[in-house]
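Complex 536.
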Amino acid sequence: MAKYEIDPQRWKQEVLKKYPSKIGKKREKSILVHEGPEVAQQIMANVRTIPGIITQRGCTYAGCKGVVLGPTRDIVNLVHGPIGCSFYAWLTRRNQTKPPTPESPNYMTYCFSTDLQDSNIVFGGEIKLKQACREAFEIFKPKAIGIFSTCPVGLIGDDVHAVAREMKEELGINVFGFSCEGYKGVSQSAGHHIANNALMKHVIGLNDKHPAGKFRINMLGEYNIGGDAFELERILEKCGITLNSSFSGNSTMEQFERAHTADLNVVMCHRSINYVAEMMEKKYGIPWFKVNFIGAESSAKSLRKIAEYFGDEDLRLRVEQVISEEMLPVKQIIDEIYPRTKGKMAMMFVGGSRAHHYQELFTELGMTTLSAGYEFGHRDDYEGRRVIPTIQVDADSRNIEELTIERDEVKYRARKTEEEKQALGGLGFNDYDGMMVDMAKGTLVIDDLSHYEMEKLIETYHPDVFCAGIKEKYCVQKMGIPLKQLHSYDYGGPYAGFQGAVNFYKDIDMIVNTSVWKLIKAPWQAEPVIEAEYAT
Ligand code: CFM
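Predicted structure with FE-MO-S cluster bound:
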């Protein structure tokens, strides 16, 4: 059991007391004091943020355009909306990509927008959207154009799908639209689902040509933040595993189109891509299981899982050899750094998977995670997929299309029989246990952390490092606590795989052991604070 000067239960009560009672009652269900991995606790997640509360969340358009499609270099990602939405989404996630030659198409550094004006809002923007498609085609001759709807487009009722169909016909390339208006869901998460659906409908399965290789996998839910995908590509190649396609770090349209030919889907970020994994299994017969390449030990474990799936002795030996080679420098660095990081405390509030995955890296450094939570995870990301049947479907979730997927009788190929899958039971097919089983008793699990709760966590527990994003960074640092961005890596990284783990250890060692933070006085240490309470 984790022991802290201030009991987390007391912390929770103090925080809730400050909210008006109705809000306190709602937040109570999203703040859990962990009773231990063996206790099944229910968390309230994926529900609307209470108006007036400062949330970490982003919008549906961000999840669709920025997250899932953003890292694909040869699609023109055209935003239908006011220019602000584009500026916001323009390379703000630090995706990287490596075109094979300097001439290969790469539109990722561009920012495509229809730049809707007041008159378009009044009279409709479809004509402008068609013009923009034609112009993009004229200039770039892309293989595909994706059209992303922003809030006003949904409000005025432009039919982006009709425009996409018309342009597809006229230009002779793949054009598809996304109804990913920012307001469409309670967070980015809805945008992931919408993106997954459109990829399934319009792209996956279009091309049967695939690279040669005995062991061909798709890496799902890996977005090449800070070059993570490059490190994973290096490791897989060294092991003799062929990366058939990646969703969507360092990816291309061609990869998406041939995804249905892979022998296996491995899932990194469950939240953003589990829909594609599920649908591909049903339609094409590709089994999937969860992996985690964040952390050296988890990377080794994930590689072993893949080798076990293929059941090939040569592959198994090669994977073992790669692991022992790669672990050498990892162990050296850990031995040096561990005494300096051991016992330090981390907190992390990120997206819908990293708050789980990065706990592994901190464990390797001997650090504890006192508190963690997702911005927009669902209950299954906390409690495991077993709770999915019990999740209440509310109006917000019903707002997003559920595709009816049927087996593709031509392209379906059973990779493993049910018996074979059962014999490989330890691989956890179609499963994810969620974050909470990996957290200790007495830790604080908080969904959709509010700014107020964040301040209180820092004030009370003074973590050695707080992990979140750019919106939180400078507030936290002004409180004298270093903040490590786990969305963009603060221009560092990669952090995935073995070399990535070494990068992370070094960065965290620097962060938690620099003395500069001790020289900062938080405002409440320097000035008296006026406190007030609601009378309700
Ligand atoms: Fe998945 Fe992501 Fe994440 Fe996510 Fe994101 Fe991201 Fe994230 Mo920022 S897909 S849920 S919507 S791992 S952009 S690459 S870092 S919040 S934890």
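The chain has a mean pLDDT of 95.
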